[in-house]
Amino acid sequence: MDGFLVVDKPAGMTSHDVVARVRRILGQKKVGHTGTLDPFATGVLPVALGEGTKAIPFLDESRKEYHAVMRLGEETDTQDLTGQVISRGDWRQLTPDGIDAVARLFVGPISQVPPMFSALKRDGIPLYKLARQGAEVERQPRNIEIFSLVLQRTELPDVAFSVVCSRGTYVRTLAADMGGRLGCGAHLRELRRIRSGPFAIENAVTIEQLADAAASDKVQALVVSPLAALSPLPELLLRERGVAKVGNGIVPDAGDLESGGDMALSGGRVRLSRSGRLVAVAEAAVVNDGRHVQIQRLLRVFH
Fold first, then answer.
1. Does CATH number 3.30.499.10 belong to domain 233-301?
2. Pseudouridine synthase II N-terminal domain location, by residue (predicted)?
3. What is the per-residue DSSP string for 5-73?
């Protein structure tokens, strides 16, 4: 089985745990995931199957959407509810309008320091392992972007919000930073991912639903094909001889294409397909004064 499953990850499981469960349910060895979720978080976890694992580097997951709840007045060492409270502040003077005004300051391109409790590595050691030993190392700020940040419900000291952000954003750090700006501290109580690139919660299945589908031989209907998962990339249709060439690692020429000679393309990656199946991801460029597309090199071939 090849492609992607959109799993609705439950709280209390790591992303690796989900992959292990999917592997057991489907009896398939080649399984991976993209877009790690913290154990306390729930929601969209794209799980790659078979040839889908080859497509992971080409996915457009530049935008992610979350629903979250932060608690004001308590800062924790992990920036979420799983950690130890390290400071408390007074939130009682805050108003919904004042909180909203601070939240708006975080919309747009911002700089964010990754948390110590993260999978980022220093000298090959994950930061969370160093954090558990009581160590703290300097982390370089990273440029991220908050496309939208909307307060959904304010029931102090809890504030529910939705956020659309760039890849690499730590929502718990966003909550902690907002708490810092408000002067009372904050940590994340709930986090649910609603969308990760092309994968949405509307198409997600729980572990239990997947197990039921496997028992009734209906899993294939849940799988997003590699061709569909990479739909943001322009598609070029190959002739049979083009498929044969690509299978042998040979770059196809214009005569190997059924379509795409006059497509609008500024250059970059494209999908090469045949009969609804992804054959390869390639690098292409426009030639002949913008009238034709030329495949320059194959980036990944799918079998």
1. no
2. 23-171
3. EEEEEPTT--HHHHHHHHHHHHT-S-EEESS---TT-EEEEEEEETTHHHHGGG----EEEEEEEEEET
* 38 classed as catalytic: yes
Q: What 8-state DSSP symbol labels residue 239?
A: P
List the structure tokens of 81: 């509810």
Q: Where in the chain is the domain with CATH 3.30.2350.10?
A: 3-61+198-226, 63-196
Q: What is the CATH number of domain 63-196?
A: 3.30.2350.10
Question: What pTM was estimated for this model as a whole?
Answer: 0.90
Residues of the chain with CATH 2.30.130.10: 233-301
DSSP states of 192-250: EEEEETTEEGGG-B-HHHHHHHHHTT-GGGGPBPHHHHTTTS-EEEBPHHHHHHHHTTP
Q: What CATH fold (topology level) applies to the domain 3-61+198-226?
A: Pseudouridine synthase (3.30.2350)
Let me know: does 15 contact 207? Beta carbons within 8 Å.
Answer: no
CA–CA separation, 271 vs 222, rounded Å?
22
Output DSSP code: residue 229: H
Tokens of 121: 């590595």
Query: Distance (Å, rounded) from C-alpha 242 to C-alpha 236?
Result: 11
Task: Express each pLDDT in 108-162 by its tens digit.
Answer: 999 999 887 777 777 777 777 777 877 777 788 999 999 999 999 999 999 999 9
Largest CA distance in the chain: 72
pLDDT digits (tens, 9 = 90+) for 168-204: 999 999 999 999 999 999 999 999 999 999 999 999 9
Tokens at 164, concatenated: 């659309």
Residue 74: is its pLDDT beyond 60? yes
